[in-house]
Write a structure and sequence with these properties.
There is one protein chain. By secondary structure, the protein is of the alpha+beta class. Helix content is 20%, strand content 30%. The protein has five helices and 14 strands. The strands form four sheets. Strands 6, 7, 8, 9, 10 and 11 form a six-stranded antiparallel beta sheet that branches. The termini are far apart.
């Protein structure tokens, strides 16, 4: 429940003492050591990433620093692309040079309606979110950038979080993508804002993967049910 103070024994213990705890949506830190919930929902922990957050499928997505998201370019100005993350949030600002190796001459020319895979680098209640298509620490894109072709599908925020876990099967109880990938080749980008971009060899295969994810999400399928769904969809294709 909102306002609940987390005790230290429920928090992940990092392997290295220098690793800081990462707080996700639904949590607020108050110095010197108090962590309080701000949303109702189950507490989720990723011990490998030393991260903790509150899962809440019913709420709207609120941009959080370090989230990877799928955004749509709405318009551009002299130095920025202004991008839509959700219909309910203000436009995120994407600096036109926030791409790997970008200069004024080589920067991508994005059009209105274009899709990008980006990371939230700054988020505040009082300022528009800022996003980037590269890692400022390394200068590398690390998979971020313009998304060409493919299709975007809506999923719940909880499903997006599960898909982004380092171990989908063990921690997220998801096998649907692994099963489909044995027979269907596809690219995928998962946005924490409840968007998934999929690009397969054909529209039919792209729709198959998207339908599989949405059905798994909407019907809360367990591992065995996901395997059955995968076999069914592949037979019908």
């Amino acid at each position: 429940m909102p306002g609940h103070v987390l005790s230290e024994d429920v928090l992940p213990v990092p392997r290295k003492s220098s690793t800081s705890l990462k707080l996700g949506p639904g949590l607020r830190y108050t110095p010197p050591s108090t962590i309080t919930t701000t949303l109702a929902g189950p507490l989720c922990i990723d011990r490998k990433k030393n991260a903790v957050w509150v899962e809440n499928n019913s709420g709207r997505y609120i941009p959080q620093t370090n989230d990877v998201i799928i955004a749509t370019v709405h318009h551009s100005s002299t130095d920025f692309y202004h991008c839509s993350i959700t219909p309910h949030t203000t436009f995120a600002q994407l600096p036109q040079l926030a791409f790997e190796g970008a200069t004024k001459k080589t920067r991508p020319q994005l059009s209105s309606g274009g899709l990008i895979y980006a990371r939230v680098v700054a988020a505040s209640k009082h300022l528009d979110p800022e996003i980037a298509c590269y890692n400022p620490s390394t200068g590398k894109s690390e998979g971020l950038g313009e998304l060409k072709s493919g299709m975007v599908f809506d999923i719940s925020l909880g499903m997006a979080r599960r898909l982004l876990l380092s171990k989908q099967k063990e921690e997220g109880k998801l096998v649907i993508l692994e099963d489909l990938a044995e027979q269907v080749a596809f690219e995928i980008a998962i946005g924490r804002n409840g968007k998934v971009w999929i690009n397969a060899n054909s529209v039919k295969e792209t729709l198959l993967v998207g339908k599989a994810l949405q059905t798994t999400d909407d019907e809360a399928l367990n591992v065995d049910e996901q395997k059955k769904l995968s076999r069914k969809l592949l037979r019908q294709s």
